[in-house]
Amino acid sequence: MAPRDCSRVCVVGSVNADLTFTVRTLPRPGQTVLASGLSMAPGGKGGNQAVAAARAGATVRLVAALGDDGSAEMLRHHLAANGVALDGVVTVAGPSGSAVITVDSSAENTIVVAPGANGALSVDSAEVRAVISDSDVVLLQLEIPIATAIAAAQVASSAGAAVIVNASPAGARPHDLLALSELADVVVVNETEAGAWHWPVPHLVITRGARGASYLGDGERFSVPSPAVRAVDTTGAGDVFAGVLAAHWLEGHEVALRRACAAAALSTLVPGAGDCAPYAEAIDDAVSNRATERQL
């Protein structure tokens, strides 16, 4: 297959060091459970999405903040090794972002995030704003201050880039969500997030887990199924979806959804979030196997 001419993607978002516990069942409130495994790996929605977009074939630059701690070096190395340009990554005093994840035997998970340096991310400098402006697609999430996400969307919109917002995690105030939605070309949400808020955007993409994803916009509505897989860990699947969607968005809505669904499914076969994104060749194979399926 000929090389894919993907977009120049700028991801503005969080980078974390993930501590993942593997358990038989997720603990209930007040309950202690024993873990059968423990690992530390790169993560954060912004970092995960940047790696996913790069592995899908896009030229990717990341705007993020890291601390001056030991985790920062590991995170920088991981991102650079995956072809993510770091000229938009700044260092701030204090710890980098971190997350504690528990994954049960059914591949369900819970996540607790400590923002750390992510909470200090801004797009005030001319250098960072130039990184955002020099992009075809700008991808945002909500693990950074909402004011920063709005400011980044304003810079991107003024530069003529397509603005994609992965409106997760939930928790932003309604008037902030409205301000961000008004600047977005595309909003990506899960089914719960879709029902919690009216998204006044040209293109709405709703992820449906193992059932794939749906598109609403341009006077069109359709769904794309997800390849059937035996999931090991669903952590990071939503980030892989968003990153691959951004990488292929300008190729067409259906192409982007189909490849994003395939990539997200493949990501659940790998434990952890930071290194679970598949490469373009694997996505090609998964898409080819389901090329004729589309639900109106």
Automatic annotation (TrEMBL):
CDD domains assigned to the protein according to its UniProt record, in alphabetical order: ribokinase (cd01174)
Annotated binding of K(+), by residue: D233, T235, S267, V270, G272
Regulation: Activated by a monovalent cation that binds near, but not in, the active site. The most likely occupant of the site in vivo is potassium. Ion binding induces a conformational change that may alter substrate affinity.
Domain Carbohydrate kinase PfkB: 8-278
Cofactor note: Requires a divalent cation, most likely magnesium in vivo, as an electrophilic catalyst to aid phosphoryl group transfer. It is the chelate of the metal and the nucleotide that is the actual substrate.
Highest taxon of source: Bacteria
InterPro entries associated with the record: PfkB_dom, Ribo/fructo_kinase, Ribokinase, Ribokinase-like
Gene Ontology cellular component list: cytosol
Gene Ontology annotations of biological process type: D-ribose catabolic process
UniProt main location, coarse: cytoplasm
Coiled-coil stretches: none
Cofactor(s) named in the record: Mg(2+)
Pathway: Carbohydrate metabolism; D-ribose degradation; D-ribose 5-phosphate from beta-D-ribopyranose: step 2/2
Sites where the protein binds ATP: N190, T207, R208, G209, A210, R211, G212, G238, D239
Residue positions of the active site: D239
Subunit structure as annotated in this protein's UniProt entry: Homodimer.
Family as reported in the entry's similarity comment: Belongs to the carbohydrate kinase PfkB family. Ribokinase subfamily.
Function: Catalyzes the phosphorylation of ribose at O-5 in a reaction requiring ATP and magnesium. The resulting D-ribose-5-phosphate can then be used either for sythesis of nucleotides, histidine, and tryptophan, or as a component of the pentose phosphate pathway.
Name of the protein: Ribokinase
Taxonomic source organism: Mycobacterium lehmannii
